Fold each of these.
Amino acid sequence: MGNYDIIVVGAGPGGSIAAKIAADKGYSVCLLEKEDLGKDGRYKACGGAMAWELIEKIKFPEDKIDRVVEKLILHHIDGEIYSKQGKGAVIWRNKFDKFLTDMATTSGAELKQNEELIDIKKVKSDYKISASKSNYSAKYVIAADGVNSPTLRKLKWKKFNKEDLILTITQEMELDKKSIDERLGNDEIHLFFGIKDFIPMGYAWLFPKKDAITVGWGNQIGKIKHSKREFTKFLNIPLVKQSIKNAKLIRYTPHLIPMGVRSILYNDNVFAVGDAGGLVDPISGKGIPYAMMSAEIAIQTIKYCEKKGKEEKMGEMYNKKLDRSFLSILKQKREFRNKIFQNDEKLKSFLELWQTHRSSEIILKNLL
């Protein structure tokens, strides 16, 4: 049995950052990953658009960036077009996630690949994890294993409500860079909206990479009647149809993402971070920065409470730190999302404001 101070389940952005920071702080850390990351990482269904501030913060190498973007084009399917300025990058998640995992192992975390969590139980003061190849134990567990978190499911944490889940469909379409630039511009990404005739609670997207376009669609589960048919409707929008003409389908992946925070984020030395905790922007769908921030806060909480002898306060402190950082506004955004998607008139008013304001600013200043 491998004995550690902290076991992190899931080597995505949240898990890898948690493992790195914990190792940097002197903890023995096991990073448990169910898949084989190999040399280039594993595919993740994701548009891959990142704010430039995040790229700079982690010093992500420029040669791993597929496209630098300067503009977000917001399309309403009735023809209205809005434009939001802002520098960002479009990346392949396998490269991004592997970069962070390598940072974690460089700091001293032990990566265990092809190790799927089978069971987890609390025995006295430690958690015992049975995995597909071996057994592990640790005082603390960081659940960074996604919206369907096997860790939290085995520990009988309450599931997400249905109205807090979005089903996404992602297609990766291979196409030469020249064609992509001509059809979609060389520095733009595109979002598509329309409540009445398109997506009642969500949006679709075209995110160009260097020689591929990520074509995606996402809708609240309870409002989906026939996902493939609704996704096909998106593919038949004239701009979308023209953009992917003669492109080769290289991957088709359905995926769930949370749009509401879990009822609890900590219990008895177990921390939920990232998608496992529902820490995703309910309006934009942005999750990676919150996964990384929640991971950092979880490790800071462990370190601080141990140092001060306040281990019984960990849950309270974790939630307070999350609230101060971003959790409070995420919860407000979850309520505000219903207001945005009341009807197309409200949606268009929001898109117009979103051109020049952050969504958090629109909410806090009551601009809509």
Amino acid sequence: MKSKSKIFFWTLFDFANTAFSVIIVTVIYSKYFSNHVAGGKKWLWGLAVSISMIISAMLSPPLGAVADVSRNRKRFLLMFTILSVICTALMFYVHKGDVIFGLVLFILANIGFESGLVFYDAFLPSLTEKKNFGRVSGYGFAMGYVGALAVLLIVMVLLPPQSSPDYYFYIRLSFVVAAVFFMFFSLPIFLFVHEPQITAPVKKNAFRIGINKSKETLKAIFIHKQYPSISRFLLAFFLYNDAILTIIAFASIFASGILKMSTDQVIYFFVIVQSTAVGGAFVFGIISDHIGPKKTITITLVIWLIVVVGAFFVQNVFQFYLVGLTAGLSIGSSQSCSRSLMALLTPKEREAEFFGFYDGLFGKSSAVVGPLFYGIIADISNQRIAALAIGLFFLAGLIILQRVEVPKIKTVKENDSLNTGEKSIIEMTK
């Protein structure tokens, strides 16, 4: 299969799984659960997000190592995708007062969604050359936001006016729509994208070996300091990704609580935000390949600081739309460029293992502190102060990121006796 075809089928998984992210985590289920099911107790939603992220963080590094030594990345990705899809569909049966049932389904669905990303992201290094990581990662996130737009438009057509007696029935039906969308458009990666090839032989007792490898890697990164740039980047990523995931989890609740926006207005808002997110992920992916992912992430974090300050001062829906449009430019690009930087830093043939730490221990656990922190501050003061406080995570991540040393990619003409033409030579600059 041609490289472009593989990249396209790989990006379709981003197109698919964003249905869960936008409908369940961001726009509809978060608001439905917090306001309708849990009676306005925002800390319960923060707790649900935090619990699911803790479990995903614990699972991801050892499972990533297992996938590396067993060549079963697609199998793990399929298993977690099915878990997320089934639990998302079952949210249809969550009614007012079903707090425990709603919590358990969301926690399991989010574990499936977040854990699957470890194995999805680990395909990136095998799809293209290192010099194109930023562009290809950007394609994936851009496709994700196109998928978000598509599923939001479907739900907009589906939902009746809020005054309709069947309104909550169709709200719950939107969860089924998200599940079907997720499953259907994720099929191409399982059917057409092959398992990344590795030169190391497949090991027996892969689970035990994987557990041991993840322990060794953790020591190598943070105790023996064998990968100083990776350890600094993971710490920076932990902080600013915590803030991003918190904003995603509470954006709908902020809009309805502070500005009294209806569900329809919130959906329209996110349709517009997704539009700028598509452009942001695509454009910043190209920029990343020209100036490097570190500088590009720095730019997006400055934009995020502007966003949280704007959220603190916003007074009306129009101003909130402006803040949302600004956030849209940076939301996909921050995560896309982070993925390409991690791929650039990661040792060859240990992609799933290292992405297990990136997506799992630092990506998922980063969403433990922020949502609970935001929910508690919002309940004891207000959501404006909570949004502003999240800016501290962006600022700390920005400062630490500047100490990350990035591999330099140069193209030189090699000796004809070795090979003809130009080849990419990667030189680590210390």
Amino acid sequence: MRGNHENVDIEYKRMYVPELRKDIVAFANTGGGKLYIGVNDDGTIIGIGDTDDTMLRLAGSLKDSIAPDIMPFVQIRAVDECGKNVIAVEVASGSAKPYYLKDKGLKPNGVYVRRGSSSQPLSEAGIRDMIVEYYGKSYETVRSLKQNLTFTAFQKELAERHLSFGEAQMRTLNLIGEDGLYTNLALLLSDQCEHTLKIAIFQGTDDVVFRNHQEFTGSLLSQLKEGFAFLDKNIAVKSSIDGLRRKDERDYPMAAVREALLNAIIHRDYGFNGSTIINIYDDRIEFISLGGLVSGLSMDAILMGVSQSRNAGLANVFFRLKLVESYGTGIKRIQALYKGSPKQAVFESATGAFKTTIYNLNEPGISEKMSLYQPNNEKEIILNLAIKQKSITRKDVEIALSIGSTKAYSLLTDLCNKGILIMQKAGNRTCYLPQ
């Protein structure tokens, strides 16, 4: 090999050292190449004493320390060069790029490519570009740069609905890709989710005087629950006296608040690094999510009820958790909740952003109340849901009406007393069936 110099596809190693793994990774991430063990940098052959032991150690190291599995693209054999034993490692360009060192992760110090005659770290931007190139442009399906994920909040939600959580379920939900690694959908549902929800409260009708704010982190499921609880706490109740009775009316339909929050979380473009924003003013609440409309859809189509989810996997998870009733109904439901009000909900789209605005119904000049707010119509919603699902639970009612457990139980009990629903117990689980 004298006279053959190291190149973009040739690497020499005097002896076996674990660090040569980065050269194998670099070859697989680029156009492939050959690595020779027992050869000096200048091509002088040194030879290897025990080739069998060296090949076993090398194969074990590559199998255990590189992900995804690189072994289908690697051939290791002993060759005779000038009467001396040399180990030749031939690496083909991999089909599941980027390959990386497991102990370093999908980071520059774990992902290498060939540049000239050396193996160099790939930048984070380069890693993302390589992932998109080999796995398509769907953010959800792309391999997550973070693989040390935990799912405390997600597991809790599944357990509350008596749903299983394991590798099979995660593959079905596309949290684990074909390469056996976590996808970005898994990252969004994990406790390590990098995106946040920010809620700010302003005095008056502009953003000059700042009252309070909070940022919610963790799994999108945690952000949804904690964000809604914060909104519920900070949305005022107007009290009035009707004869001997006191009437309490919320400033906003909480079902509309819930739908707007769900839409902002489910349909935003998580390829952007910014936060989902909610601004609360005296007269309105604005829900601002990044990404705008999905390409090919117009605002007119959206208002007609057409739905094309940007995050189909995330929408499916929320549907399975019964956090949404069906796909594409959020905007139409908000419109229905504001039917008859002088100020309708407003939906706006701009390049890279989508905004939903709902108005304070207790503000001066907005006195009409929607019939859907009244208790009798809450019972109609419960009955329709029971007929649709064949049976419902108290938790289903809490989610559908955005109410607490006490009120949900009271409504269900009243419907049972009137013979509209039948209560059925199965162990510790109580269901309600339509008559």
